[in-house]
Design goal:
By secondary structure, the protein is of the alpha/beta class. It has ten helices and ten strands. β2 and β3 form a beta hairpin. The structure holds 5'-O-[(R)-(carboxyoxy)(hydroxy)phosphoryl]adenosine (KG4) and zinc ion.
């Protein structure tokens, strides 16, 4: 089975061909990071325009790299939610056109389900059910993966996502967008105990997360130091911030795993590339005797392979769409 996966929900235009659910035949990513960096974040209007310009070339290359033609495909999978609406619309309409022209099934894929699926590409033995922490620029969720296509969100951020917290704090420290990876690098030479940063207190659902208090504390600390003409060591602050985010994410995931009886844990999303989060999660799982899965670093950020992989499982479960498929900016995984 050969599935084309198309992703355009944020600032990466990506396409990939996946064979038999788990083998990457090709993966092409055109990133717009350089252009958005000038503005310190993604400019939605620019993102849509670049997707429009790049999507055909990226898809052609994915098919050529896989050494196949449109006619060889068994389905065309596309991210339809959630994300920047203008960006999503480019991918959705392009995929609809391809499906119409080729007569192949159109397969809608939820972006977060795609992130979770990166673990199937990295670990041939992984099968549901398991508990997955998904942390990215726009989302921070603890999710029960009940089957390849059924999910239950057990915890979510009340405010900012973990990636957003990394990026906003990084920006205040003077790192370029997107700052998460720069914090990660700086943290390697910093002291994680140098700054005591707040952990969120969340009332209600004990598995919910919150990062806005931590973000505000870091930004205020930097502003106060600047006003007083004091220097803050960016390596130390990065290390302390990274350790705090890793502790929060790991602590909540372990709490949920224990309460719900999961012994199989996975990590996914852009923040899963973070060395502190990877280490904290694998250590916590090892300590409890849980098996732990995380995607290889090249699959952590947005890509087409994750959409092709999840699309393959969706197709097998009969999840397809007709030409009325629309893009949706906000859609909980509980609703799919
Ligand atoms: O999944 P993703 O590519 O896009 C969304 O779906 O949001 O995640 C992007 C996020 C950004 O916030 C980026 O700073 C963060 O993932 N990120 C990292 C690292 N690499 C990417 N955060 C911390 N450490 C990293 N090494
Ligand atoms: Zn993503």
């Amino acid at each position: 089975m050969l599935i084309l996966g198309i992703e355009s929900s944020c600032d990466e235009t990506a396409a990939s061909v996946i064979e038999d659910c788990r083998t990457i035949r090709s993966s092409v990513i055109s990133t717009q990071i350089e252009e958005h960096r000038k503005y310190g974040g993604v400019v939605p209007e620019i993102a849509s325009r670049r997707h429009c310009e790049n999507i055909l070339g990226v898809t052609r290359k994915a098919l050529a790299d896989a050494d196949i033609e449109l006619a060889d495909l068994d389905g065309i999978a596309v991210t339809y939610a959630p994300g920047l609406i203008g960006a999503l619309l480019v991918g959705v309409n392009f995929a609809k056109g391809l499906a119409l022209a080729s007569g192949k099934p159109l397969i809608p894929v939820h972006h977060i389900a795609g992130h979770i699926a990166t673990n199937y590409l990295s670990h041939p033995d992984l099968e549901p059910p398991y508990l997955c922490l998904v942390a990215s620029g726009g989302h921070s969720h603890i999710i029960e993966v009940l089957s390849y296509t059924k999910f239950r969100v057990v915890g979510r951020t009340r405010d900012d996502a973990a990636g957003e917290c990394f990026d906003k704090c990084a920006r205040a420290m003077g790192f370029p967008y997107p700052g998460g990876v720069h914090v990660d690098k700086a943290a390697q030479s910093g002291d994680a105990k140098a700054f005591k940063l707040p952990h969120p207190a969340v009332a209600g659902n004990e598995f919910d997360l919150s990062f806005s208090g931590l973000k505000t504390a870091v930004i205020n600390m930097l502003h106060h130091a600047e006003q007083k003409g004091e220097d803050i060591d960016r390596n130390d602050l990065s290390a302390s911030l990274q350790a705090t985010i890793a502790e929060i994410l790991t602590g909540k995931t372990m709490l949920a795993a224990e309460a719900l009886g999961y012994k199989k844990i996975a990590l996914a999303g852009g923040v899963s590339a973070n060395s502190g989060v990877r280490a904290a999660m694998s250590e916590a799982c090892a300590k409890r005797g849980y098996s732990f899965y995380m995607p290889e670093k090249s699959l952590c950020g947005d890509n087409g392979a994750m959409i092709g992989c999840q699309g393959s499982y969706n197709l097998m479960a009969g999840i397809t769409a007709d030409e009325s498929l629309n893009a949706i900016a906000t859609l909980s995984m509980d609703e799919i």
